[in-house]
Amino acid sequence: MEINNNIIQYEPNNNNNNNNNNNNINNNNNNNNNNNNNNNNNNNNNNNNNNNNNNNNKNNSNILNKNINKIVKEEKEVEEVEKLFWKVFGNKYLLSKIFYFIKTHDWVRYINIDDISVYNGMKLDYIQSLEWMVKKKQLNLLKYKLQKKEIQHIKIQPNSPQIFFESFNDSTPEQIEVLKECLEILMNNHRSEFQITDLIYSACIAKSIIPLKILSSAPYKLPIYSYSFEYALSNCDLVFCKAMFQAIGGVSGNCDNGEESNCFKDIELPLSLRNKTLDLIFKNTQYYDGLLSFILQYENLFSAEQIHTTSPDIKLPTIRDHYFGFGVKKYSGETINKLLDNGLIEKESIKKQTIDFKRPFHEQLIAFKSQYRGKGEDKGKILMPDGVKEKLNQILNNNNNNNNNKSKELQKLIITEIKKIKFFYSSYIVKYGETIEEYHIKHNCWTNTLKSRINNVKILNIIRIVSLLHWCSQEEIDSIDFNKVTYHPIVSKIIALHFNEGPLIIDSVKAIDWISNGGLGPFSIRFISKFVDRFVYSSAKIANRIFEKCCIEKSILPKDLVKKGILYSAFSLGDKEMMSYIVSLGLRVKEVDTSQFKFIEGHDLTINQLAFLSRFLSSGGYVCPLKFLCSFIESIWKSDAISIQEVLDKINFKFMPAAFISNIFFKIKNEERKALLFLGVLKNRDIDNGFMDFVILTKKRILYEEKSPFIFHAHSSTIESYISIIKTIVDIIQELRKDPQQPPSENNPKASRFLSSQQKITRIFEPYLDYMFELLLSIGNLEIEQLKLVYDYIISNSIDIQHSLYHSYFYLYHRSAKLTKYIMSRPFIDQVCQLETNKEKAYDCNISYQLPLENYDIKDWLNTKLFTFQYLFSEENSFEKILSELINQLSITQSKLYPNLACRNISQDLNFFLEINKVDLFFDYFNKFSSDSNYKKVWFSLDANVFTSMCIKLNKQQFSTIIDFIGKPLSDSKRLLLIQRALNNCLVSHRFDLVDYLVEEYSIQIPGIGFCLLQEKTELEKNVYDSYYEAKHILSKYSQKIPLQPDLFENVHQDLKSNLFQNTFSIHFYYYLKSLNSVVNFINLGVEEKLKLLEKYLQKETFYLFENISLKDFNLEEDEFKNYQDCLNNTPEISNFNRYSRNQTEDYYNHIENIFNMAFVKGDIKMCNLITEYYPKKFSITKEACTSAIQKMNIHIINYFLDPNNCNNLNISFNNDLKLTSHIHSQLTNNNIYNVNGIK
């Protein structure tokens, strides 16, 4: 190892050595410096320095040696660990144990019980679903599988492209780049599989712009059909529709860079689409506004003239489709204006709209235009005079005007042109402080004569306003001596109250005097009285002045309104002097209506002002209405209080009823700061004995809804807030316990009126604690450590936690969601939710449900005394032990009491073990019950889910053990039924090793290739497995065992004579008849009728599948089945299968429901190719299939087979049947489907 002597590269073992090292180096440097400085002066210093250097070098050398030794030691330890690792890895037994632990151990914590599935823990190679990888954001895994040189089967279903495209919408930029790469690989290497549907149409449904742009551009340039365009305009947003227009017009690049008009003005749409554009957009209820605003800019993209002729039933927007003070806003004002200009508003709706200057600019514009609506033949038109139109266009086209200036200019135009607009003219004067001379000149207003009498322009404006508002008459104005009229700025603010809400704060004595003295002359009282109840007086001085004017001197103001104003002012401003003034006046809240009181917006009180107000209200015994109380509370949060304790120390909450405070607590329990405040208030204040909290008494305690636990997810901060609230309640209880307050007694009348500390605990805080703890339990993402912390904190403070079914249920959930999964898997447990009387469709612990015992009312079976917190979270009790107790209570006990439920319970138990990946528990219980003769009848009737789970989780040896055990005691017919059913499960599960085992071991019949297309599967099976994969395995290995295979019908006759095939066929056919309720009818038919029914059955291509047979309902030993078998045995013509099999097969090839046509109609290119590979020159493309494919918009598969190279294995195709090609063109025309971007 090479070491640089000038640098210490490794840390020594000892900190002291490190310090010494640093000191020695520093000393060395210092000495060297001294040496340089004193070199010519002192030789002794040189000697000393040299000695020091030598010592330092020795120290450094020692440190380096220690570091080297440390490194060597560490390297030896690493070598030893590596040797040990390879010894363990080479030990097959230990390695198997390690892998078993990895496989069976839970690496994630389940919150949603539906996530606990038999499909969890799948091997990487078994993950084939494109949809699954995309939804789980396993994009690099998808890319890896697509890029892998070895052929990797990727499951792609008809909706897979849509889901793949949707993933672009919610991905990060990095993920989008990976998705782009995946899309490129899919299009280049897996196109026949991925193009299972019209990809452009899928992009439209997904509303995904990136795939649309990629697929419509080089090198792919996929055709865009009319239905894709129509879907986009009817359902997608403006950004997507712009991209669609670009794709159709061949416009590339970004059109949002200021050159948008150049992008779209030259796009040529087919006339048929232009005629539809507006109609389609009107149907787009979510995005129509933006789309219309965009489309109406480009005449080349729509046709207004043709809209009524091409779409006579189209429903045009109405002028009221925009919000005018009522209803729901549908279109923006700007869009309605454009529709008006283009004649696209429903004629009958164009009526005069009320002009309101408070509305936005475009709404004012609509209302203005509506004043010029046409009538009679001109109905629906806007007939604005040219002069007015010119003025309006000048306003609209003036780009130098901002929106505010445009609005002002429009209002001036409206006021000038519309005479009956006096109210808004006065509003205009108040807002802008000016009059419109043009208005007065044009309308020859009588107020023009006042110019000679009024020298003050401000007074003239005020007089004009009051006259416009009809607050005075011309006669009154004429009688006024304007030399005595004075102006004060307060008058403009008072007039503004007519147009706005809110109070007016008066802070000037002169303003009070002007108001009281009637500064505007004789009509002042009429003018001022309209707004006096909204005056707020800024100080006691101002309040006193107005009161003196009102009560002592002569004033125009009414006394009662002044008193109310003073009271409001004192409360709103929190002014001490004013509150003292209120007391001196003897005013009380109950004397004045304060029901509508609220604090002034934007005028927040300080905590000290609120404190004084609270003490004032509490000491005066004021009874405050609800709105005042709520307003006071909101003011607390807006104040300058720095802590909850400061609020508690300063605010006197005595004036607030305890019930009000309690109810507020429940409303703000999610806001920790507010909740803690009200807990403190309840702790500190006296509470009347009559207090009762109805919120706690009536709250619901729900366990589950429709087989789903009633849990919710909370943000981590919310969980911490709940914990903090619970801790605070515990602390309050502890404080109250120490309170020496005496209980009620005859000698303590006050104590008899109010709750004692102990009563507060039992009636308020303990119920609160129970409520908050139960609320905490219902949070799904609560960590176990958090729950333990809260529980221990409560118990450590000697507080008992209520225990009930509710607590046991959620303790089990937090111990493991698997335990809840087990509970919810019980048969009939959701029957409570299905009761007609259960309106909530949920299980509420507070309700007593009346159900038979064999049904699951969980309280009848779950022993809550056992499943306590201590039991469930004790380290001594393993998950397996708890689960065993749960099974004993909820399954075994019930099965013993009600043997008819044993099969369902055992099925669910065994399936559950496999769902949680506990194969060992599966066999423990299987061995336990299989050796018990009481359960010997249940095995044949196990639920299908158990077989599916066994196929997924058990290895071949384990699986064969179970099948052999169940099948041994059965009759031949039942055994055959069981094995056939197991085969179906194995196929669906893609356990082809088990399929091979069953076919070879039992020589059974494959149901048919159609099984892969027709078999109904669960949602999980659809998401994980692929019918193509199943079909490929069947055809490649067992083609000779598939019924109706064309080249093997010479041998079918011999096969039918064998007992095995005869039994297989007879069982299939029996259950087919059973499904039609026709078994007895078949037995009584004549030979020819029997053969016709048999032929009809065989035309279905696949036999009636065993998966659909309910084993518990049908018994193969019943008399009906025996009579049926006798009928077959006594009808030798049925065995002569070869007599009609050839004709039936030949008809089948051309049948619309044959397997090829079914795949063709679905657009499944890959399946079509697979079928024709194994059935060369047998199947044909039919007109009926083409018609169905076009109707389902699967035109991509027609395009695929239009290529002659793709038709080599077909009997009849587009390549050799011109009539077929002609049929396609006629069908496309009939369905109004055509290419809109010119790409074939």
- Catalogue the unreliable spans: 1-50, 1010-1016, 1044-1061, 1101-1108, 1137-1144
- Enumerate how many helices there are, as a single number: 65
End-to-end CA span? 70 Å
**Overall number of strands:** 5
Radius of gyration: 44 Å
Mean of pLDDT: 78
Biggest β-sheet description: 3 strands, antiparallel
Order of the strands making up the biggest sheet: 4-3-5
Helix- and strand-based class? Answer: mainly alpha
Strand content: under 5%
Query: Helical proportion?
Result: 55-70%
Give the arrangement of secondary structure elements:
Elements: H1 15-37, H2 43-90, H3 92-104, H4 130-135, H5 139-147, H6 160-166, H7 173-189, H8 191-194, H9 199-206, H10 209-215, H11 226-235, H12 238-249, H13 260-264, H14 271-283, H15 288-295, H16 307-310, H17 333-341, H18 361-370, H19 386-397, H20 403-417, H21 422-432, H22 437-442, H23 457-468, H24 474-478, H25 490-496, E1 504-506, H26 509-516, H27 524-528, E2 535-537, H28 540-551, H29 559-573, H30 576-585, H31 607-620, H32 626-638, H33 644-650, H34 658-667, H35 672-684, H36 694-698, E3 702-705, E4 708-709, H37 716-737, H38 749-753, H39 757-777, H40 784-796, H41 805-815, H42 817-824, E5 843-844, H43 869-872, H44 879-897, H45 902-915, H46 919-930, H47 944-953, H48 956-967, H49 972-988, H50 992-1002, H51 1011-1014, H52 1019-1024, H53 1027-1038, H54 1049-1057, H55 1059-1075, H56 1079-1084, H57 1087-1098, H58 1119-1129, H59 1132-1135, H60 1138-1149, H61 1155-1162, H62 1165-1174, H63 1183-1191, H64 1195-1201, H65 1218-1230
Parallel strand pairs: 1-2
Antiparallel strand pairs: 3-4, 3-5
Helix pairs in contact: 1-2, 5-7, 6-9, 9-10, 9-11, 11-14, 14-15, 15-17, 17-18, 18-20, 19-20, 20-21, 21-23, 26-28, 28-29, 28-30, 29-30, 33-35, 34-35, 35-37, 37-39, 37-40, 41-42, 44-45, 45-46, 45-47, 47-49, 49-50, 53-62, 61-62, 61-63, 63-65
